[in-house]
């Protein structure tokens, strides 16, 4: 069971928001993690350096948290094949939705983009339905 940690969650949310604002202010780019990740896969675009730095920060920050002696309460009660299939389904959704939860949910909604608001509502509706089916219908 993952613990509810309101202060850590608030801090993480503030850092995500700050990074999104800084990326927009300094580079004029939206912090959509899928597009950022796609930009470091060859062939490299001309702006690959900031993308690599952004992703490095997303990896190094949790490692720094762990190195400081903290732990990250996290449990995944699913098998690796299930996670891979889920990742593929999410990838398909990101492709057809023209963006991911970070691009639409964090940045798009902050800009009051109608398209992003609708996309985020769809993400949330399907997430809620998936959890309901998995826990209450399939008993997983």
From TrEMBL:
It is found in: Cell inner membrane. It comes from Aquibium oceanicum. It is a multi-pass membrane protein. The chain crosses the membrane at residues 6-27, 48-68, 74-96, 117-138. The keyword Transport applies. GO terms for cellular component: plasma membrane. Belongs to the TsuA/YedE (TC 9.B.102) family. This is Sulphur transport domain-containing protein. InterPro entries: Sulf_transp_TsuA/YedE. It comes from the Bacteria. Keywords: Cell inner membrane, Cell membrane, Membrane, Transmembrane, Transmembrane helix, Transport. Coiled coil: none annotated.
